[in-house]
Amino acid sequence: MKIPGILVGGALIAAGLFLPALSTPQPAPAGTVGMEHEKFTGPDTVTIPRGGSVTFFNSSGWLHLIGPGDKGQFASNADVPHLGDYGVFNSETGDTFVAGPWNKPGTYQITCQLHREMNLTVVVTE
Fold this sequence. Notes:
By secondary structure, the chain is mainly beta. The protein contains one helix and ten strands; from the N terminus they run H-E-E-E-E-E-E-E-E-E-E. It has one helix spanning 5-18, and strands at residues 33-35, 40-41, 45-49, 54-58, 64-70, 73-74, 89-91, 96-99, 106-112, 119-125. Strands 3, 5, 6, 7, 9 and 10 form a six-stranded mixed sheet that branches. Strands 2-1-4-8 form a four-stranded mixed sheet, with no helix packed on it.
């Protein structure tokens, strides 16, 4: 019996989304916010000066969708810097991205839509 190509392709895409990468991820470099399977590594709060940036590194074998919000729910926030083409960053194993500059002092929440346990607070000071 011949299996339709669409079924094979769909199964491969699903496996890629939910199974960890086969290679061993590298640890997050110093000064970056790392990502493990269901959490950001390092402190729960990052404090930066106005005009500063936050560097993220996907140190896991998992896909992450990072954007403004809390507990896996994205929320629009014009004061959060551009995080990707649609306001979120699609992060695969080994990806590094820089969110910044953060120009308005305040407290901001960042989350992973795929892992609601992944939450980070960014405090921007004067």
